[in-house]
Amino acid sequence: MEVKEENNSPQLERPLSIEDTQQMSVVQPTKATSSEDKSKSRKNAIIAAGIVISLFACIALGVFLANMSGKGANEPQAVEENVQENKENNFFSIEEQAAKASELSINGLDLGADIEKMHALFGQERSLQAKGEKQYYQYDDVRVVVNNNVVIGLVSESAHAYSKRGLHEGATLQDVRLMYGDNFIKSKYENLELYEYKFTTVNNKDGLLRFAFNKGDDKVQYISARMDEKASANKPTKAEAQNPAIQVLYNYHANITNKKYREAYDCLSENFKKRMSYEGWVPGFKTTVSSVPSDVMIYSQTAKKIILTFNLRAVDNPGGTRDFSGTAEVINTKNGWKIDKLYHNLK
Q: Counting CB atoms within 10 angstroms of each CB, which of 66, 158, 213, 307 has the fewest?
């Protein structure tokens, strides 16, 4: 029997050939490609999720903008209503408020306005003083003088008090003349030089806008607006001016106030002058500051004579203020209507 010998020695692996190496190189990339595909799949999933989220975000943003556009359609009207409401409630800057008023005003408060308008614009006063028939309302920027519930005087108290044309304390004389021109009345009071401009108040009275300067300084120290009592004192209404008898009474007292005594005396009739000469008449007005008639009414009237009743306020220095009730007989002469008789009774 032939016995085959078993070779129990371990079998050695065959060395790798070039072809084997190439085959292995082909196999290895296959594993790498599979891993890359998984990575790409994950990236694609993330991108898809991002697209979905972005889509929902765009839809939400569109809804939000649509709602906002719906609200915005009403905004112009709402803003306009708010502006109107602010205007009605005087929500303006000081400069805007001043520019809306008359020339005889400070910070928008007109000379001749009533006390209700003052409180509507300025609110509660800081203090109040009464001197005779006048009340002095003190605010931070303006002092207001009132008589019979009517504003008769305004005085600046700070650089925040503005005239209608925007001037305030600290402005220069050049600023004043540039804004208001050269048609001013210049006068002096103690150490002040005063430049005053004539305007008409909201209640058709004559008034003065004053800019005060220290002597030798061209900076405004204060601004004031006040009634021109001499000019307004004897200014009849249009209806009164149409009646020549009433007009002559106003002219008489206006000339006395303005110290034009000859003109005043010429308003009297020849009969009156016979009873009292000019030399005997004129000394009676030596201390008169103003003589102001008011509430003139026709008591009786014919073609030749008109009897008038009126009130008279006379201010003397010294002497103070006195109120009278008066009666005047005015006659029609060849030289026009003249005062023939005058009667005054102290109230």
A: 66
CA-to-CA dists, residue 125 to 134, 140, 205, angstroms: 15, 9, 26
DSSP SS3 for 193: strand
- Give tens-digit pLDDT for 260-314: 999 999 999 999 999 999 999 999 999 998 999 988 888 888 999 999 999 999 9
Q: From edge to edge, which strands make up the β-sheet containing 336-346?
A: 288-301, 305-316, 320-333, 336-346
* Rounded-to-integer distance, Cα 311 and Cα 294, Å: 5
Is residue 207 within 8 Å of 105, Cβ to Cβ? no
Beta bridge partners of 310: 326
- How open is the CA angle 311-315-320, to the nearest 5 degrees? 120
Q: 337 in helix, strand or coil?
A: strand
> What are the phi and psi torsion angles at 68 (to 5°)?
-65, -40
| Distance of alpha carbon 306 from alpha carbon 243, whole angstroms | 10
The rounded distance, in Å, linking the Cα atoms of 320 and 287 is 10
Pick from 245, 250, 246, 249: nearest CA to 235: 250
